[in-house]
Design goal:
This is Excisionase family DNA binding protein. The chain is of the alpha+beta class and about 70 residues long. The protein has 3 helices and 4 strands; from the N terminus they run E-H-H-E-H-E-E. The strands form 2 sheets. A two-stranded antiparallel ribbon has the order 1-2.
């Protein structure tokens, strides 16, 4: 981190990084992440938390199926 600035992702960036749709992000993932102060109309989430979630999740698991790809 240069100049003490946090590394963050927007909602769109987090969706792309996790490989999920915006709807899935809003319903299942958003509440697990720390939401930072808005700048204008954009929401920001900590980059490290998104990457940790990405590495831990690995696969999307639904009650009926184990989605691999």
């Amino acid at each position: 981190m240069e100049d003490g600035k946090l590394k963050v992702l927007t909602t769109d960036g987090a969706c792309k990084e996790l490989g999920v749709s915006r709807t899935t992000f809003e319903i299942r993932i958003k509440q697990r992440l720390t939401k930072l102060e808005k700048v204008g109309t954009r929401n920001f989430f900590l980059y490290d938390e998104v990457m940790r979630l990405k590495n831990e999740a690995g696969k999307i698991i639904t009650p009926k199926y184990n989605v691999i790809a």
